[in-house]
């Protein structure tokens, strides 16, 4: 099956030349997601937890558009502008996902687009 971009009015528009999510034969690979409020191109709030909460709300819409749910998420990579946010982010993450959790990596980065505090990319099976 050729790759098919997932497009929906419920999702934030990409800020650059990329697809929000791409469906393949068995997996869906999401581009890095910022905590953007759909229709505004603005971050949901100033904190990593505000932004991760919005990322997960947007992920809910992406999963629904693809006929998937939380249980289909295989891997999450989190990019943190400040590793000091790690514990707070884990709290939001644990509320969103249930055990057994997806595989996950958290990486500290020097900066993110729009001065975001967190970005996530996700692989869905």
UniProtKB/TrEMBL annotation:
Belongs to the RutC family. GO terms for molecular function: deaminase activity. It comes from the Bacteria. CDD domains: YjgF_YER057c_UK114_family. It comes from Streptomyces phaeolivaceus. This is RutC protein. InterPro entries: RidA, RutC-like_sf, YjgF/YER057c/UK114. GO terms for cellular component: cytosol.
